[in-house]
Amino acid sequence: MGWLVDITIGAVVGTIVGAIVAINVGLLLGIDYEQAISGAFSRTSLGGWLVTLLLVAGPVCGVWLMRKLRADRRSVPVSR
Asked: What's the pLDDT score for residue 17?
């Protein structure tokens, strides 16, 4: 059951962080934050791919980080 919690929390937090980073990178590249991804591609192809990559990488990295943190927590010896 712990893996389901890791996936859920990691995906939600990763999505939020990924969206914030993608919007900021888009603004730096001159892409209006209200445009859809197709609007980002019409402005600059590289910017569109970068924004898309950040939006996809956010949840993936969030889940990976949550799974890693849980594994590290289990491997720490408990001292009495």
From this structure: 95
